[in-house]
Specification:
The structure holds 2 protein chains of 2 kinds. Chain A is an alpha+beta fold. Chain A has 5 helices and 3 strands; from the N terminus they run H-E-E-E-H-H-H-H. The two termini of chain A are 27 Å apart. The longest helix of chain B is centred in the first third of the chain and has 20 residues, at 69-88. The chains are: A alpha+beta, B alpha/beta. The structure holds pyridoxal-5'-phosphate (PLP).
């Protein structure tokens, strides 16, 4: 079996890009996956119709943290329309390895935070927005017993 | 019960046992299936699978209703299964064995039916900090409705019940304590609790005791007389039986005095439009069409376990536990929760490894074909007690071997290497 925990992922987990906080973000947003305790906080700076800068902070499994790093590395600097159009398949492609349904949730946490943050920024006086789905897809019911 | 008695010399032929479980021949990719999650649900032997198949192929019919031969056969097999379960737990009377969907439904039955009739404003229900959510939430719902109070016996650093704190709770609340709900074995720590003592002290203040036997009945000799409790709840699927069937055992006089739980067919004597009279035990608590095939297959599971010998089952798991404790403790950076010796615990091992998230651990182990659980194991208050959000948990049963523990240890070492900074 092809390990999910290949060098690319582990590199982003150990040396996350865009990690930290920003002094004057346009918007901040964070979400928690209460079942596993994964948490992602994002500070976003929106300027001239672009996602000019972003930082994430948080804790959790390697997949949730590496996905946040990979995601921000990919989207920072891009136009808002392009960032908004970013979807789960784009993120999975970025990760480059197949994820089990249970672990997709971990990866998608950061995308959910990014989208909710953009949505909030747009609501607070940004340009007219096309509706954005803000929640992470919650498909893998996680049950313990 | 002999989960906590001295060493037994009974042995179990694990090679022969493994041959009885078709799923153990499966592979995960190119790796053998290493199933270490029996605390969540056990695998099923051929005999149990065949019993289900046989029921649906040859005599599937509703019980207690048909006046034709296959229905009578199904009814007889269903009642025979009840008898087998009664014998398995040392119950004196088949009518004390109520079939439910599982431990969760059994506990809810008591919380609703018994609680509604017996708990009043200001009364106290005592639980413990190590209960599964299914032995907490039903009591919380009931207590909120009745204006009762929930108190909890705390857990010590080594994962045992703090019985002195329990005594203080009993002294403080005295006769207002109506019921103590305690797990026999912790599904997260593996701790074997002294339920006899807990029940004796409860009785001294006039309280009943409900024992959650989900993790004990499958793993060693359990006798309701020895436990000294009033209710025992357990699940078929954790003891080689099918999902969808479980048991509530209760003392006959208490069950007889209780109002029914679900209303419907089978649980009545006579129904008029505005009022009904109820059937005798056990039917009073088995409204609707029961899970007949599952009950029959659970009876076959008890046959299988009885043939192995529950002392031998316990001895096998104790040896495997001792081996696993040594192997796991030898892994640097691994923190194991629960009591330190195999004598006071069952084969359930919750651990964390360095600061690797348990979900990552479980994923890496899965790549090696090793199935463990990661999460809070439906014991969030216990996780809070130890300042954790999640652990990884491996658990063993009759079919597991030391080689599988070695595979677990090797996979954990691989995880460490992947996460080494
Ligand atoms: C100790 C304990 N109690 C209760 C349960 C609930 O059992 P079930 O889900 O079969 O109703 C479990 C298992 O999930 C358990 O381990």
């Amino acid at each position: 079996m092809d390990s999910f925990y290949r060098e690319n992922i582990m590199d982003h987990y150990r040396n996350p890009r865009h990690r930290g906080r920003l002094d004057a973000p346009t918007v901040s947003h964070e979400e928690l996956n209460p079942l596993c305790g994964d948490m992602i906080h994002m500070d976003l700076v929106i300027a001239d119709g672009r996602l000019a800068d972003a930082r994430f902070d948080g804790h959790g499994c390697a997949i949730s943290q590496a996905a946040a790093s990979l995601l921000l590395e990919d989207v920072v600097g891009k136009g808002l329309a392009e960032v908004r159009a970013y979807d789960r398949d784009d993120l999975f492609e970025l990760l480059g390895v197949p994820l089990s349904p249970a672990r997709m949730k971990c990866a998608l946490l950061s995308l959910g935070v990014l989208r909710a943050g953009l949505h909030a920024a747009t609501d607070n006086g940004g340009s007219a927005a096309t509706p954005v789905v803000a929640a992470t897809a919650d498909r893998a019911g996680s049950r313990s017993g | 019960m002999a989960l906590d008695t001295a060493a037994s010399t009974a042995t179990l032929d694990v090679v022969a046992v493994r041959a009885d479980f078709p799923i153990l021949g499966e592979t995960v990719g190119d790796k053998p299936l290493t199933y270490l999650d029996s605390a969540a649900s056990s695998q099923k032997p051929e005999a149990v699978i065949r019993a289900l198949d046989d029921y649906y192929r040859r005599y599937n019919a509703n019980v207690h209703r048909g006046i034709y031969q296959i229905s009578e056969r199904a009814t007889a097999a269903y009642e025979e299964a009840r008898h087998k379960v009664a014998r398995f737990i040392g119950a004196a009377d088949n009518r004390e064995v109520i079939f439910t969907r599982g431990t969760t439904e059994s506990i809810n039955l008591v919380a609703y039916a018994w609680g509604r009739a017996n708990v009043r404003q200001g009364d106290v229900i005592i639980v413990t900090e190590m209960e599964h959510h299914s032995n907490l939430v039903p009591w919380q719902i009931m207590a909120q409705e009745r204006g009762a109070l929930i108190e909890a016996i705390p857990v010590t650093d080594e994962g045992r019940l703090d019985l002195e704190a329990y005594d203080r709770l009993l002294a403080r609340h005295g006769g207002r304590v109506k019921l103590v709900a305690v797990t026999h074995v912790s599904n997260t720590l593996g701790t074997v609790n002294p339920v006899r003592e807990v029940a004796d002290r409860a009785r001294a203040v006039g309280a009943l005791t409900l024992v959650d036997g989900a993790q004990s009945v499958p793993h060693g000799p359990v006798n309701v007389g020895d436990l000294g409790c009033d209710f025992l709840a357990f699940s078929g699927h954790k003891m080689l039986g099918p999902m969808g069937i479980g048991v509530l055992w209760g003392k006959r006089a208490i069950l007889e005095a209780m109002p029914p739980f679900n209303g419907g067919g089978s649980m009545i004597k006579r129904v008029a439009l505005k009022e009904s009279t109820y059937a005798d035990l056990p039917n009073k608590f088995e409204a609707g069409t029961p899970s007949t095939g599952d009950a029959i297959a659970l009876g076959v599971a008890t046959d299988y376990l009885t043939a192995l010998g529950m002392e031998a089952v316990r001895a096998h798991e104790r040896d495997l536990t001792a081996y696993a404790l040594d192997r796991l403790r030898a892994i640097g950076g691994l923190t194991l929760y629960g009591p330190p010796t195999a004598e006071e615990r069952t084969g359930v091992f919750s651990f964390t490894l360095d600061d690797i998230h348990p979900h990552d651990l479980a994923s890496i182990l899965d790549e090696d074909g090793v199935c463990v659980r990661a999460g809070h194991h439906c014991t969030q208050p216990l996780m809070d007690r130890f300042g954790l959000t999640a652990t990884a948990r491996a658990s063993v049963y009759v079919y597991n071997t030391p080689e599988e523990i070695d595979r677990l240890a090797a996979a954990l070492e691989r995880a460490k290497a992947i996460f080494a900074f």
